[in-house]
Amino acid sequence: MNEQPLVSIIVRTYNRPERLQECLQCLQKQDYRRMEIVVVNDGGVEVEHLLPVELGGLDYRYIRNPENRGRTAALNIGVAAASGDYIAFLDDDDGALPHHIRTLVEAAAPQWLPVVYSDVLNVTFERDPQTQAWRRVKEQLIYSFDFERNNFLLANYIPINCLLIRRDCFDAAGPFDESLSIYEDWEFLIRLSQKYPFKHIRAVTGEYRRRDDNSNILEQESYPINERVVKRRYRDQRDGVFDEIFKRTFQQQREIRQRAGQFDQLLRQANHLQTQLAEAQKIILQLQRENSLLRTERPS
Fold it and tell me: Closest by alpha carbon to 168, among 230, 108, 118?
């Protein structure tokens, strides 16, 4: 592309104005400025007044659902409203470092790549018992894996706020599945990965934030149910992957056994040579003693 691509960042929010404010502040600090921020308020408390304050100077769109339609519908509404060449995501309780969007764009734009993704830190917060303020207590780099298409059939290994996706890819892969209240990103990435390669950027550019009281997880009871749905939907492909893993593991175990046998043989040979060397050293010592004795017995 000859000019910088426009990046639409979808922010879905529901009844968390304080965390949304922090999220918007992260976007204001981005050093890549050709962005539009699409905030989708999914029927929660009014937050429109925060946008001109926190996003001053940036283009933004505000969409407020009259009733709560669910976090997956909020994603689709945001994508449909976006006008960017590329689309990124940042939920209201997560964070982005100032170089987040620039890092993704610099990797994607020169070759107009369909999907790029970076790494994010998993950050745990807990409440201070005295001040009740949230404190950072743990940082972990949990997800930092190169792209492997079949691994999506086993589990999701790319948080949604790591991604930058070319706009037309959504036309090819289809929307997020609104029958899923959770794991909607995993199911979408399975479909997307079957159509496009992803490029991994080994750089931490954001944060996936978790509160120790799990207050950032609104649909906890849906996790096992939705996980079963996704696994059943791709059962045949998953079985094929597991078969390949079993075959590969079996082959690796056989190679390990073969190498172990070769190692044992080499060890036996080494032990045998060591025994021969010890015997040779005894013979040399005996010959040296005999030679010394002969010298002492030689007449003068």
Answer: 108
